[in-house]
Design goal:
- The chain is an alpha+beta fold.
- The chain has helices at 18-21, 26-38, 51-64, 88-92; strands at residues 13-16, 42-45, 73-77, 102-106, 110-115, 120-124.
- Strands 1-2-4-3 form a four-stranded mixed sheet.
- The longest helix has 14 residues, at 51-64.
- It is globular and about 45 Å long.
- The chain starts with 12 loop residues before the first strand and ends with a strand.
- The mean pLDDT is 82.
């Protein structure tokens, strides 16, 4: 990730293209995300995590929560478009539903206001 600029008072957003993550293992993806979020920065993934990866991210995050430091993460994702096969039959046949853009940040800095299939409204506070 880019070096966090702590001297300025803004919030750093790291926009990560799908190509950067496509050849990484689940744990490599999780470490990349959590190391960035531990710095107080926000991660925006062009292509979201799989449901299994998201579950593992939450599991690892829970083990790293510290009341005097890291407060956890807030994660929001856009679902796949309705045109793709997200029917029960499709899921039973092994077609994992992928998410599109995903926003991940420190739980004490990011608050979702509104989410639907086309809009995600969020307040991001300064550290």
């Amino acid at each position: 990730m880019a070096e966090s600029t702590k001297q300025n008072e803004g919030v750093q957003l790291d926009l990560i293209r799908a190509e950067k993550l496509e050849n990484k293992t689940t744990m490599e993806k999780i470490r990349l995300i959590l190391d960035t979020v531990h710095n107080g920065d926000i991660v925006v993934l062009e292509k979201g995590l799989t449901p299994d990866e998201e579950s593992k991210l939450i599991e690892v995050t829970m083990s790293e929560i510290n009341p005097d430091g890291f407060t956890g993460i807030e994660i929001e994702s856009f679902p796949t478009s309705k045109a793709q096969d997200s029917t029960l039959f499709g899921r039973l046949m092994g077609k994992e539903e992928e998410t599109k853009m995903t926003v991940i940040g420190p739980a004490n800095q990011i608050q979702s206001l509104h989410k639907d299939d086309t809009v995600l409204s969020t307040i991001i506070s300064n550290r």
